[in-house]
Amino acid sequence: MKISKKLWRIFGPLIIAVLLVVVVLFAPIKGHVMHDTLQRAANSLSVNVLKGEMIKDQAMSQNYVPFIGSSELSRMDPFHPSVLAQKYHRNYRPFLLGSAGTLSLTHYFSVQGMGKILNHRKAVVIVSPQWFVKKGVDPNMFQYYYSSLQTTTFLENAKNTQMDRYAAQRLLSLPSGKSDKIIAAALQRVADGKPLSAFQAFYVRYFKGLILKHEDVLFSRLFIKNNQPLLNKQAAKLPTKYNYAQLYQDALRMGAAQTQNNPFRLKDSFYTNRVKKVVKKLKGSQVDFNYTKSPEFSDFELLLNQFAKEKTDVLFVIPPVNKRWMEYTGLKQSMLNNFDRKITYQLRSQGFNNIADLSQDGNQPYFMEDTIHLGWAGWLKVDQYVRPFLKDLHAGKTNYHINNYFYTKAWQQRNPVTVK
Predict the structure, then answer these.
(1) Where are the domains of the chain?
(2) What is the pTM of this model?
């Protein structure tokens, strides 16, 4: 056997494999997402969907509207926004973005990754007081949802603005931002108000970014959780025609039926699995909780700044905490009132005036499914704001005026009592 044939038998398969990888990763990007996949992705709450770009971009170019939040989005009872939109054939479908631990910084990078897709469009954001803890986002949770793809998109479009400088600095303050040395160096240049070097720009756009975009096209459609059977099941429990009075009575009935085993009106399964064994230890445990001073206020400003940049019209929902649970754990209503004062000032002073402030509704019957998550009557109340807001999916005239003061530590630590 000739030496050349022997070499080919040894190295041929390796060469072919390398060529296939090159073709797959560097061929022109063409990705079309089927209707069924979009529908499944919109309600999946899957991490790969949140971290990707292709599926979200195609969904938002249709009649899907981003519903941005955290763990409350997974509480899919019959009055959940996705169920109501499906049952009553609304002109929109929620695209759920968020899970437990997704805070403002994760959402900022996700939203900026969509770019101009949200230009003059609408969005709904559920702002949980629990995001605004003393130290801000947990680095481990941020890492779980961290998207290298969205970071390369950020770097490709970064300018010398307060928003981009702060975003780069914030990312560098977390381990995620330092996981790639070249990306970290590029982030540092943005943080310093400098353009990327020629090498960094090439690496971001034509190497790292291109590979990640191909991976998104190839793999983001895989392993998407299918919550559609659950939505169908919940929708079947609702009356054929939308009637608020009837729906409210149904919400009270369903809530009462599912909160039988505890005095806090927590869903029975939640109380049994999460609370019952430790309930005595939790009495008075939240007396010192404080959501009024946090780096999260400036991370939240990033999200507002991005919405303002694209003139996205946003409805902000501020949920309450279960009143009975508050009284048991010692969580102070006065502290929550101060949080509400601070966050609504940050919103209204910059022209974000569409606010569903539900912060005082924690004592309403069956408003909450558990300690901090909206449930039956709560979701129905949210719908009273969402339904008229989304009659038209295109944003009207916005009048935002971003104030860079909200990026400062002075604002993060400011006592809400001083806010007027």
Answers:
(1) 31-418
(2) 0.93
